[in-house]
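Dear support,

We are seeing what looks like truncated structure output for some complexes. This example has four components. We would appreciate it if you could run it in full and send us the complete token output so we can diff it against ours.
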Amino acid sequence: MLEAAEALKFQPSVLARSLRTRTTFTVGFVVPDVASPFYAAALKGAQGALEESGYRVMLMNSGQEVAGEVTALQTLLNHQVDGLLLSTTGISASRFDETVGRRGTPCVFFDSMLEGAGAGGVRIDNARGIDLLVDHLVEHGHTEIALLAGSLEETSGRERLDAYHLAMERHGLTVGPDRVRVCRWSQEAGRAETNALLGLANRPTAIVASSAELAVGCLAACRERGLHLPGDLAVVSFDDPYFGALLEPSLTAVAYDAGAVGSVAASLLVEAMREGHTRRELSIPVNLVRRRSCGCEDA
Amino acid sequence: MLEAAEALKFQPSVLARSLRTRTTFTVGFVVPDVASPFYAAALKGAQGALEESGYRVMLMNSGQEVAGEVTALQTLLNHQVDGLLLSTTGISASRFDETVGRRGTPCVFFDSMLEGAGAGGVRIDNARGIDLLVDHLVEHGHTEIALLAGSLEETSGRERLDAYHLAMERHGLTVGPDRVRVCRWSQEAGRAETNALLGLANRPTAIVASSAELAVGCLAACRERGLHLPGDLAVVSFDDPYFGALLEPSLTAVAYDAGAVGSVAASLLVEAMREGHTRRELSIPVNLVRRRSCGCEDA
DNA sequence: CTGTTAGCGCCTTCAG
DNA sequence: CTGAAGGCGCTAACAG
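Here is the complete output from our reference environment:
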């Protein structure tokens, strides 16, 4: 075959094909900060799943602000991406509609979502995770449980906060004033807010950190104050970092598959791009990893 | 102006423009594993710098193997990217030339590079980093110093290994057999190789880990064996992870700006895409962070 | 200096 | 069933 022989070297132009067919086989991926371990893992998962289905991924950082998010979406839409994977920093429904709704590009949200918008979403099972953490602290006899809540801009922050209130209520526990610390998702914020908590008149006996970064910051503050954990204070974390077993004390945490968040979201998106609109929401399971920071013994 | 009024809503088609001008303002970014903290940080740095210059980034995972790397490059070239940012897993010069050389797309390597190829490269100052680590251990009186070398597929692994031999020689120290452990860049490999090291007839009194993952694995092995650090064994690491201060003992390490590796590489690439071929190599500085795992006291 | 035209490389339609 | 032609939206070259 002459064709076969040529095929070896001939590469059809993706650009011309896209111009003609109005399909780019490219998906836009937008997160607040790719360097964060969670988003990096989700990106890897999504990239893998998309590549298997023949899609390429174009990456944008929204830089933790709505303006950046809108710009990113616009750039991506200009590039005529076939779909969007988005962990929002808090775009409004109207802003979202006027940006991507007009063009009708399928969008799957993950981790932090705009309720009811787009072609669906994938979330971590935040409620269950917080329940696991609070229940376990209660099993250890704690009643004075505080929360390093992280930011309420993202749904994951809000869901974890809500679940905390519900769990406390379920156990008949009251949430004292100042016991909930809303802050940025950083180690430094975790340190500062833990110091605030420990400076309280009736300080808590246990702290739930809404992320690994916050937990690490919390441990730093404890170490600075010379606290002995878990005796003086129990600490548990939503997120099980890979070095969790080697911290001092080793960290009791809720673990989940961050890569799966990305790959499942990608599957949903591929489906939406192919079949059309079948809005679906999925949730990634979590499980409790017991270590020493809660008062358990190491396995 | 009618034009101005329309301009608000009208978005020229990037695709048609690209087809016509043969310029996509898109850059391909290829790494073995985006989920690894270093590559994620480099990606963020690169993305930021590229965006400022009007470029978009298309991401590909090579999955730690040459085949994946070639596929990734081909996909990217099909998309007519204007430039490439690549941390290679060991593609050969001939393979590289026949894949990207033909088309002449500028390529800047970073971290792990193909010597002499492409439009330049950015590396971490591996030699200086290892010198800092070995010198410091010698200051503490160590002479029996082993190396968790990581993989030799990447230039960073090879450079760190070479620097280790040179540094040992400079101090008149001999490197016993089995004192250098070549392995994958994973926590598990670090654990396994540390166990091998500790099982040796004359075990080392100090270990240099070529990456944070290896160091964490090393600490895990030590803990399992009930070793008291830094008394029984000193451990230092090339890479300063953000939780380094909270490990037990806190980790003495060589730190550097991973984001800068990406952004500097991106700048070099932008220059190459605009001006043409001015091959340049740059190196990112490192510094020693003294903590307790080497035998120092915490600050 | 402004307005028109001819492709960029492909896919899809229509004619043969 | 095979083959030629038009156009996707843009820009560069050219004519007025």
